Prior knowledge:
By secondary structure, this protein is an alpha+beta fold. The chain contains four helices and ten strands, in the order βαβαββββαββββα.
Amino acid sequence: xxxxxxxxxxxxxxxxxxxxxxxxxxxxxxxxxxxxxxxxxxxxxxxxxxxxxxxxxxxxxxxxxxxxxxxxxxxxxxxxxxxxxxxxxxxxxxxxxxxxxxxxxxxxxxxxxxxxxxxxxxxxxxxxxxxxxxxxxxxxxxxxxxxxxxxxxxxxxxxxxxxxxxxxxxxxxxxxxxxxxxxxxxxxxxxxxxxxxxxxxxxxxxxxxxxxxx
Length: 214
C-alpha cells in the first residue's frame, strides 16, 4: 500500500457556503500566506509543449488541449464513460515559480494545492452550489513520482443534485501538474483510483522531460 503523509496544512476542513450573499471560508494562516505566494514571484521560461500528452491515461482517452501562453498554462483534457455519463479529467501544467527551488517538498506542493482548492470551491459556488465541503485531504508519496501528491475531495451540494470534484496536485519539476475530475459522490473512491493511475501514467510517459530535483 502506498504510504501516506498527513500535513497539518491539509488537515483543516474548508467549508464554503452560500446563504443569500454570505460566504464562509475556514482556512489556516499558512494557507492564506501560501495563496499569495505563487502570484508574487516571476514565472520562469519553461517549454510546456515539451511534455507528451499520451492518447490514454489509465481509463481516460485524450480529447484535446488548450495552450494559454500569456498565463503560462497548458490544459490537457481526457474523458471516459461511466454509467452512460461522460467524466472529464483535466490536467494543468504550469511552471514552478522562481524562488521555490529550495522549498521542502511538502511546502512546495501545499503552497500550490491551497490556491487550487480555493479556486475550485469558489467556482462551484458561482455555478450554484449551496455548500462546498473539502474532505479526504491527504498527501500521498508515490515511488514513481519525485514529489508528494496532495489530494482533496470537494463535496458539492446543489439545490437538486450532489457532486464531488477530486483535486490532485504534484510536481514534475520544472512544472506543477494538477488534475481534476468530477462525478457523483458515490463514485469518489473509483475517481480517486482513476486519477492516481492517470497521474502515474502521465509521469511514466515523460521520464526525460522532468527533472527529479525540484
